[in-house]
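User: hey, got a sec? need Xaa-Pro dipeptidase folded
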Amino acid sequence: MSAYAEHIKTVCERFDKALADTGFDSTLIYSGQPRVDFLDDNAPPYRVNPLFKYWVPVTESPKSAIFYRKGSQRPTVYLFQAKDFWHAPVNVPEEEWQQYVDLKIIDDLSVMTDDIGSALANAAFIGEDFAEPVHSWNVKARNPQNLIDHLHFHRAVKTEWEVENLREANKLAAKAHVAAKEAFYAEKSELEIHHAYLAAIDFRESQVPYNSIVALNSHSAILHYDVYDTEPPKQFRSFLIDAGARYRGYCADITRSYAYEEGFYADLVEAMDNAQRDLLSEIKPGVNYYDLHVSMHLKVAQILSDFGFISGDAQSIYDKGYTSAFMPHGLGHFIGLQVHDVGGFLKSDDGSSYERSERHPFLRLLRDIEEGQVFTIEPGLYVVDQLLEEHKDSGDINWDKVDELRPYGGVRIEDSIVVGKDGNNENLTRDAFKALGAE
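Assistant: Yep! Here you go:
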């Protein structure tokens, strides 16, 4: 059986269990449609419902839907192809997935609702319903939280077909990262580096899964920096790039940091890279991700001590809260159909969940690690004056050393990991760079 055949079998089984446990006979998953801007008739780029592309690798077909009856083991895909002389028709090539669904091409949503008939009234609708006629469809429930929680809990464990797609997404992103790195050392502007990234993989800006972070020098300390200066800086010091790619709807999310020349910042990047590799060795089923996050903080604390930013041992630096000022974000997150894939707080498929950590409120993942999960590992260290303000009177912090780092901004290293048995994990990101001879 092919990887996709196994995948859709698993998806059917997960939906069967979710529908049975939540009291629904069927589900209608709407792909979504563009929503125009306020007081305008133009729409931002369309993004497909992730639970639609969970079934089939179709990402550019708005107003389509999937209807699935519990226990049927075969969904019906209603692929919308409008009669429209304004826009190019949606091109859906013949592929393997079409062997495992009942595919119906429609040009009017009423054709679909007529086809489903009275069964629509017992269906759970999943998707956006801001527009007509979708808003008025007679369904049993709209986006029932118990059903969505059930599905999200289990899709944290990826099928082999999903992992294959994630591998390909990482290969694309790694290729683009190499081009961006070369543009940095060629002293290009942030915008030019961004263009080099897209050109390397023939992507439009709307095709990347999130706004790329292309940050030179002090901009690296802005965690979601996406401004892109059009002129190169007078002096090149550092480069942080956090950028991804998509393949069949699955996402890559990679961060790398580079020093323009040898010295202090280059040594810091190497230290963070070594710390990240050490963290990777701690990943195995049964470990709680929160504990991994704390381990990361202790490693960052050791770097702060080793480089003379803060006096004290790693444990005391962490206990006093200093690391949160230099490393405010979470260690990582699930990744898959979405960059920040869902389910990180769910304890079980009944919707019970973990409370956000008061100590580490921005951590997106609190579950125990399981075989088949895919998540990112992205430790960092930055000069963020807003966060350092709390410690302005501390005698433990070497402010001259902080000032030395400030023009460089910060450093972050990020990989995506597939959890295997007994710590035998797959690093999708580093493997992709190795295949290019770039790691």
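Quick note: The mean pLDDT is 96. Let me know if you need anything else on Xaa-Pro dipeptidase.
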